[in-house]
Amino acid sequence: MGPGGLPLHRSSDREFPESGLDPAAGHPLPSAPHFFDADDHVPRRAPGEPPIGRMTHDDSLMDKLVSLCKRRGYVFQSSEIYGGTGSVWDYGPLGVELKRNVKDAWWNAMVRARDDIEGLDAAILMHPRVWEASGHVEGFTDPLIECRNCHRRFRADQEDVQEGQCPSCGKRGTFTEPRQFNLMFKTFMGPVEDEAATVYLRPETAQGIFVNFQNVLTTSRQRIPFGIAQIGKAFRNEITPGNFIFRTREFEQMEMQFFVEPGTDEEWMEHWKEQRMAWVRSLGIRAEKLRFHEHGPDELAHYAKSAFDIEYELPFGWQEFEGIHNRTDFDLRRHQEYSGKKLEYVDPVDRDKRYIPYVIETSAGADRTALIVLADAYREDEVEGERRVVLSLHPKLAPIKLAVFPLVKKDGLPELAARLHGDLRERGIPSFYDDSGSIGKRYRRQDEAGTPFCATIDGQTNEDGTVTIRDRDTLAQERVAIEGVVEWVVTRVV
Ligand code: GAP
What we know:
The protein is of the alpha+beta class.
């Protein structure tokens, strides 16, 4: 996808078959129920079915990650008890915390830590003219083909349909001619369901920022250069969603538009490339798994001067999870034209200096960022001869920061552990109390959940008031005074 969400270099990514309804097809997908394994809910290909889409580089890692997410309550399939909804996912108790931590880290870095960026929370439903001005009504399309034999629908530019063979039923020469399919979800505003009442679920959050440019400028008293940031849901009726939470029909974006004087845009582009990569690294993502991809001339949107994706090497190849785009003055100019309202910036010092600002956009997916955080953190190793699955999440992203275990359910240890758990909660530190099973089992559960530290209250606690804190990654153990545990954790998880 290029700036503005207009389809530019959409890759085929149907590694995992969908279950449930496919809105593009408008009917339940054939064999939908068996796409999910009843035991562990790892999406699988139907038995005997040919691979759908490009072969993955490492299907098994993705399967394991999806299985772990289900098992530990990170991500569930939407409406699972009804067989699931096509490529829509729900975040469970741990997943919602992880994603919230990703969004908080972004908001802190982009809004709270800077004087030159203001926050915004624009509505999902906007005036339909917005999407005419932005070019989405006309151009936010993918080429769609249908197999006349099995009625499955595909994107015509998908690699695995290029040879003319249906990846679903295997028949050749059964595809219809491509037609352009608009990816925006339509609905109706008010009680009348006709063309005049049509509104769209926004396919990107950016337009809410453009149409509020003057509002924010005048109320915040910012001067150019400055930015507006927001986090919110976006919707795209993707023809080929897939790869778990990588490409979905409902997702969240974290977007920032930085308004600059024309002529300074290239400098700001460099600034934002650096800043955004540094932020991704601050989440603990391995450097060797990250790279920039510069859009070539054939990938660039007609209004984009330049664009860079930040890509991560997922098990199914290098994939974009954030784009940094020089959108020039395209959007503000179009909104000025379509709304009839002046969207110029007047320099407060030299009032003869007026211009429509250029925009450097940073556009990240919250779900994709959560996915790369999970994929990067997934490890398997061996501890004391036992295989261990561990999520080495950065402590600031981990849903639970410290798990508290009383070694035994007697001698006052549960009471001490419960008090520590309560103290942590009071300080807003997510903590988990667990007194069931062996200590080894309790460690394993927390390792899979990504909890960076576990504190065990044992016999020695009664003697000298210390607890053992064990580090998830190094397995190192240290004795810490129980009274100092809250501070010990606070300094390590922010
Ligand atoms: N405003 C610019 C824009 O929307 P984009 O490249 O289309 O650009 C930006 O989208 C980011 O939004 C992507 O890098 C990705 O992280 C996320 N995104 C886009 N489509 C998505 C989808 N179908 N599912 C999940 N995330 C998506």
